[in-house]
Amino acid sequence: MSSLKAYSPYTMYGLGDLAVGGSAQYRPMGGIGVGVRDPYSFNYRNPAAMSAIPRQSAIFNFAGEGQNFYDKNHISTTSYNSFSMHDLGLAVPLGKGVGLGFSMTPVSSVGYMSRIVEENQNITENIGSTIYDYAGDGGITQVSMSLGVNITPNLSLGGSMHYWFGDIERQYTATITNYMNSTTYRGVLSSEKQNISKLLFTLGAQYTFKVGKNNALILGVTYQPKVTASVKQNRVTLSYSSYTADTVYSGSSRWNMDIPSKVAAGLNYRSTKLEVGFDYSYQNWDGAFEIPEGQDISLAAQQDYRFGISYTPNRFDLRSALKRWTYKAGLRYSDSYLVKNGNQLHDAAVSLGVEFALRKGSFSTVGVGVEYGERGSRAANQVQERYFNIFLSLGLFGKDYWFVRPKYN
After folding, report:
1. Are 353 and 328 in contact (CB under 8 A)?
2. Where would a tag sit more exposed on the chain, N or C end, judged by fewer CB atoms within 10 A?
């Protein structure tokens, strides 16, 4: 599985765009999950939720995401479309109150192409035009194994082991076009490939408060300790003209990048018809890795706020299919880990979705969601991004099909 494909000038730095995370089933609800305890869906955000899987069952999740980007600054406007896998997960019970899950999800994505034309008047008047082209592609993917255990009827604990892996490729080209005389200037092409692989861990807990007979209020927390990843980098730099190309530098090196600790908390209310949740997370990237000199980019703490709500009129209604559907809405807001031109980037999005069962009374579902968001501000001399995402999810609950005893042999 390749990482989720991005197209943004803000992915020129570090790991690129950090994935929103969570399952596509909960993306229409703002991507909540830390406090979610749903026995019929895979929870990627809190391993403690694995313990909610019923016995003699299994859960399979698969989802894709389509993205539409629209970037605009004071000079130009660009657009880009992509589609890729969003998440893949399988969870099974190991016993009463014990669940094990395996999943593959994106961590980050890199994708950009940009051009800068030299605006130095002395160079333009005496030599010609100088054009700098930048391009990047790649990303980081996460494979996880999660275990959740019920310690008491109300308290659940869990842990996840994650393996991050992936390649990020970046290319830089400088081309000089001389229209003042016959002198030929050689261009420069530099290409680098960074490989990242690292084990990480997440600890999670959920506590359930009973509210009435069938309702519950769940408090969830997670903690991911800080780790340091060794990044292997291969770089080739060429000096070229129309006829020849000479290698200026070719070699490999290693440098360290900190993956900061991350804390998150969530609160979720569930009844037979209504679900409401709120998540908050904090991860301080300040000083995690070096930014190349001359860049107007710095690092800061990323904070995410997410809110979601869903409503199911009557899952077991025999007459109206619309009453059996689940209707979802959500909001999310993020202070990005990137600071551009002295102003921290902000990302805000709203989402809507609907989910319906594959058959009456079934907990196996198909879901569709849409999200509209904005990031960056032209008023702060930043590229303003607008994006529109579509989510398609399939959730299979094994007890519906795999563990039903046949009536006839």
Report:
1. yes
2. C
Position 330: which residue type?
G
Enumerate the β-bridge partners of residue 157: 149, 205
Cβ atoms of 116 and 131 within 8 Å: the answer is: yes
Question: Tokens 């400088």 correspond to what residue?
Answer: 174
CA dihedral (31, 291, 235, 115) in degrees, to 10, reads 80
Q: Is 391 left (phi over 0), alpha (psi -120 to 50) or beta?
A: beta
- H-only helix segments in 242-395: 321-324
Q: Is the dihedral of CA 5, 203, 363, 266 positive or negative?
A: negative
DSSP E strands in 285-383: the ranges are 297-299, 301-311, 326-340, 343-357, 365-375
Tell me the C-alpha to C-alpha distance, in Å, between residue 208 and each of 80, 92, 119, 270: 43, 21, 61, 10
Q: How far is CA 245 from the centre of its chain?
A: 39
- Distance linking the first and last C-alpha atoms of the chain: 41
**Which residues, at least 6 apart from 373, have a Cβ–Cβ distance to it below 8 Å?**
332, 347, 348, 349, 350, 386, 387, 389
pLDDT tens-place values along the chain, 409 residues long: 444 566 788 888 888 889 998 899 999 999 999 999 999 999 999 999 999 999 889 999 999 999 888 877 656 677 788 888 889 999 999 999 999 999 999 999 998 888 877 766 666 666 667 888 889 999 999 999 999 999 999 999 999 999 999 999 999 898 877 766 666 778 889 999 999 999 999 999 999 999 988 899 999 999 999 999 999 999 999 988 777 888 888 899 998 999 999 999 999 999 999 999 999 999 999 999 887 776 788 899 999 999 999 999 998 888 888 999 999 999 999 999 999 878 899 999 999 999 999 888 788 999 999 999 999 877 667 788 899 999 999 999 876 555 445 555 5
User: In the numeric block, which tokens belong to residue 37?
Assistant: 């305890």
Q: 332 with 326: CB under 8 angstroms?
A: no
Residue with tokens 């420069």: 188
Per-residue tokens: 219: 């408090």
SS3 string of 261-290?
Answer: CEEEEEEEEECCCEEEEEEEEEEECCCCCC
DSSP code, position 121: H
Separation between Cα atoms, residue 223 and residue 203, nearest integer Å: 5
Those residues with Cβ within 8 angstroms of residue 407's Cβ, 6 or more apart along the chain or in another chain: none
